[in-house]
Automatic annotation (TrEMBL):
Part of the ABC transporter FtsEX involved in cellular division. InterPro entries: ABC3_permease_C, FtsX, FtsX_ECD, FtsX_proteobact-type. It comes from Colwellia maritima. This is Cell division protein FtsX. The chain crosses the membrane at residues 195-219, 248-273, 294-313. It is a multi-pass membrane protein. NCBIfam families: FtsX_Gneg (TIGR00439). Forms a membrane-associated complex with FtsE. Belongs to the ABC-4 integral membrane protein family. FtsX subfamily. Its main location: membrane. It is found in: Cell inner membrane. The lineage of its organism: Bacteria, Pseudomonadati, Pseudomonadota, Gammaproteobacteria, Alteromonadales.
Amino acid sequence: MSSNRHSSGLRQRSSLLQRLLTLPIRHLQQAVGSLGDLWRTPFTSVMTVFVLGISLALPATLHLFVKNAEQVSEQWDSASQITLFLTLSTTDKSAKNLVKRIKLYTEVSDVHYISAEQALKEFKILSGFGQSLEYLDKNPLPATILVTPTERASQPSAANELLVKLKQEHEVDQGKLDLEWLTRLEAIAQLIEDIVIGVALLLCMSVVLIVGNTIRLAILNQKDAIAVMKLVGATDSFIQRPFLYSGVWYGIFGGILSWLAVTLLAHYLTSAISKVTDLYQSNFQLQGLSIDEALILIAVAVILGLVGSYISVRKHIRAIEPNAE
């Protein structure tokens, strides 16, 4: 009796082990089979892949635009300066002592001192009123200190805090930091990011609907075959699996197509942008999608394809029942 139980337990274990070993083989067979189904309907498959790829290429292109805009804004932020106008009573010695104190600030990267005499000379050259300014009794221009913050302190909020700190020096009469354009730049960048997120969500929903409708048509075309499979005892999960893999294949091909489209567009724009940057003597280079971003794009496409196919098969395959005849 015990030997029969032992042999029965061994058979159950071997049967379970055999199922576990054959499961990935079955999945692989159904995945390859679903790829063959797509190959047998080339027009529908190609159209679906193109629609899916173009739908994902738009938010990916907007992401690329935001990514490069952030790169440009970082360069502008690092170039911001604080201008300090000293009181007219400040002597040259006191001004140089102030420069030494400012250099000790941890938020300061560089300090440039412009004396009142140097400022007047530059103003004579730039204004064109050199002879007229000779009649002035005294120099009306104050000494000026140009303060360049560090990269971390170049952000608008940090730069404003540094300005408040510098204005507390008793030799400083006025301080100026043009934060308005930086604030506008950040607001525009944030608006673009919100637009990208909104457009991406809408297009992701459209991808799910497109894949779901394509899978629905495929299920309806094989309605009779599915009914026969149910008659011979096939489970719903077994019948659903090839259609789910079809959604995965749509996602893979659509994601690759989207990545190629964005890469070609970035390559096309690089030459045009380089001509503009050369005029402004800038070293800006357009950045394309990185390998990680490309893999994320393909993964998102696969997930959307799988979700769209899952919604479709769960609804339509369950509704197909074999005739009782």
